C-alpha cells in the first residue's frame, strides 16, 4: 500500500509541476499577415520580344504577360486572340514581380559596369484573368502589338491576393530583340 501511495503522490507532484510550468509559458502572439504590395501605377510599357511588359515608375512592380511564340511562323487567326489566364494551352504565361530596378537594362545587349541590375524579391506566378489580343503582327516582323487584360488578379505562394483589374497592354517593339 505504501508503495502505491508514494507512486501516486510522486506522479501527482510531477503532474502539478508540469501544469504549473505550462501555465507560466506565454502563448505565442498572433503574427500579422504579410503586407500586400501596392501595385498601382502599372503604366509604363517596355517593348521587346513576344509579350507585354508593364511596370510602375519606381520599377518595383512588374506585370509580365508573355506569348510563347518564336515568331518564325504566322500567328493563326484566333490562336492568341482571347485566352484565359492561366492559359491551359500554354500560349500565354503571366507573372507579377516585386523587387527593384526590374526593367534596368531591359532589352539591352551591352550592360555597363555602373548600370543597375534587376533585383527580384518575389515572383507571383499564379495570375488569373483574361487576355484579349487587339493586334499582333501577322508574321515574324518587328512591329507594334496591343492587347487588354481584364479581371486580372495575382496570388503569392503564401496565399496573398492582389486585384489588378483591367489594363491596356502595348509593345511597340513586338518581335524585336537586342543586338
Structure description:
This protein is mostly beta strands and 179 residues long. It contains one helix and nine strands. It has one helix at 2-24; strands spanning 44-46, 51-55, 61-67, 82-85, 92-100, 119-124, 126-135, 143-155, 161-174. The strands form two sheets. A five-stranded antiparallel beta sheet has the order 1-2-3-5-6, with no helix packed on it. It has a four-stranded antiparallel beta sheet with strand order 4-7-8-9, with no helix packed on it. β1 and β2 (51-55) form a beta hairpin.
Number of helices: 1
The best one-word shape is globular
Decide which structural class fits the backbone: mainly beta
Order of helices and strands: HEEEEEEEEE
Rg from alpha-carbon coordinates: 27 Å
Low-confidence stretches: none
Brief synopsis:
With 179 residues, the chain is mostly beta strands. It is 13% helix and 40% strand.
Strand and helix layout:
Elements: H1 2-24, E1 44-46, E2 51-55, E3 61-67, E4 82-85, E5 92-100, E6 119-124, E7 126-135, E8 143-155, E9 161-174
Antiparallel strand pairs: 1-2, 2-3, 3-5, 4-7, 5-6, 7-8, 8-9
Amino acid at each position: 500500500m505504501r508503495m502505491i501511495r508514494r507512486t501516486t503522490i510522486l506522479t501527482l507532484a510531477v503532474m502539478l509541476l508540469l501544469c504549473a510550468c505550462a501555465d507560466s509559458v506565454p502563448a505565442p502572439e498572433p503574427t500579422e499577415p504579410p503586407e500586400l504590395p501596392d501595385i498601382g501605377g502599372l503604366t509604363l510599357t517596355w517593348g521587346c520580344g513576344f509579350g507585354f511588359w508593364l511596370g510602375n515608375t519606381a520599377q518595383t512592380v512588374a506585370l509580365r504577360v508573355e506569348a510563347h511564340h518564336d515568331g518564325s511562323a504566322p500567328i493563326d487567326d484566333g490562336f492568341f486572340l482571347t485566352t484565359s489566364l492561366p492559359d491551359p494551352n500554354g500560349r500565354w504565361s503571366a507573372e507579377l514581380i516585386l523587387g527593384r530596378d526590374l526593367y534596368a537594362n531591359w532589352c539591352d545587349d551591352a550592360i555597363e559596369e555602373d548600370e543597375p541590375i534587376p533585383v527580384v524579391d518575389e515572383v507571383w506566378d499564379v495570375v488569373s484573368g483574361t487576355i484579349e489580343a487587339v493586334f499582333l503582327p501577322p508574321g515574324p516582323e518587328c512591329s507594334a502589338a496591343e492587347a487588354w487584360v481584364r479581371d486580372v488578379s495575382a496570388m503569392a505562394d503564401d496565399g496573398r491576393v492582389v486585384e489588378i483589374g483591367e489594363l491596356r497592354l502595348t509593345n511597340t517593339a513586338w518581335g524585336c530583340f537586342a543586338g
